[in-house]
Amino acid sequence: MLTVAITGATGYLASLIQLYNRGRFAFVPVSRSEVDYSHPEEVERFFRALNCDIVLHTAANLATAACENDPVGTGLVNRDSAIAVARACADKGRRMLFVSTEQVFNGRTDAGPFDERAKTQSVTNYGRQKADVDAWMAANLDDYVTLRLSWMFGMALPHVKPSPGIVGNVLATLRSGTPTRFTANERRCLTYAQRLADQFDRICDLPAGLYHFASSNDLTTYEAARLVAARLGAGEAEVERLILPDTERYAERFRDFRLDAGKARAAGIELGTFEEDVDRCLADFGW
After folding, report:
1. Which CATH topology does 2-154+189-216+257-272 take?
2. What's the pTM value of the predicted model, to 2 decimals?
3. Which residue of 37, 72, 130, 226 has the fewest CB atoms within a 10 Å radius of its CB?
4. Beta strand pairing status for 144-149 and 209-213?
5. Residue 213 to residues 62, 99, 150, 270, 280, Cα–Cα distance (Å)
6. In Å, what is the CA distance from 194 to each residue of 176, 198, 285?
7. Peptide bond into 179 cis (omega under 30)
8. Can you say whether residue 225 is alpha, beta or left, with left for phi > 0 and alpha for psi between -120 and 50 degrees?
9. What pLDDT, in 10s, does the model give residues 11-66?
10. pLDDT in tens, 178-190
11. How many angstroms separate the Cα of 215 from the Cα of each of 111, 113, 117, 229, 273?
C-alpha cells in the first residue's frame, strides 16, 4: 500500500479524499502544528525527512483579502513553500500532487473554457502565486501531477466540513429565507467534489503533467444558483424571491475562467456536467 503524505489534511478536499480512500492508501496527515509554511527552508527540510511515497499538497492560504493585503507573507505560503515541497519530492524520488486553481485565468478577457496550453493571466495575487508554482513544476519536475480545480461543491459529512460551494450557499439561502445575490457576470465550472475523492487512485497514476479537473458548465453563477434551488424543491415564486442576480459585481468586465478538462477525460478521468453533478450530489444526500 502506497503511503501518501497529505498537507492541509483537515481541509474539505483532503478530508474527503482520506475518508473514501483509507483502504487504498496509508495517509500521513501533515498539520500546521508540524510545519510552518511561512518558512520555506523549514518546509523543505521537513519533507525531505518525511517517509512517504507521494505528497499531496493542498495546504494554502485561500483568503483573497489576505493575499492582496500581504503578498509577501502569503507568497511564502502559497508559492515558495509549495515549491519547497516539490523540490524535496524531486530530490527524494517521490511523486508530487499539487492542487492548483481556475483562478490562474481570472484575468483573461476572452471567453473560456481554457485548456492546459492556454496562457495564464490573473488579476489576483492568489492566482498569480498558484500560476508561479504550476510553471515551476512543469519546468523542473519529471514526476508530478498538477490539478487545476474549478469551484468545488458538496455537503457535510461526519468529520468532513465542506468549503463554501454553490449547493451549500443555495441551501443556506432557502433554509434561512434570506434573499441572496449570486454573481450574474461570471461563468465558471462547478464540480462535485466527490468526483475527486472517488478517482484519487486514478489521479495518482496519471502520466506526469498538468490537468484541468472540472465538470462542464455554461451557466452564470446566478443561473446555476437558480437551477440548484429548483432541484432542491423551491417553487418558481420562492426562487424569484430568494435567488437574486448580483449585476454590479464584475460589471466592468464579465469573467469567464472555465476550464477545459478534455485532457483529463482522455486519460480516463470521469467528469460530467454541472447539472449531472448537482443531481448526483443531491441523490447522494437523500434529496
Report:
1. Rossmann fold (3.40.50)
2. 0.95
3. 72
4. parallel
5. 18, 10, 7, 9, 17
6. 26, 6, 12
7. no
8. alpha
9. 999 999 999 999 899 999 998 889 999 999 999 999 999 999 999 999 999 889 99
10. 999 999 999 999 9
11. 17, 11, 18, 19, 5
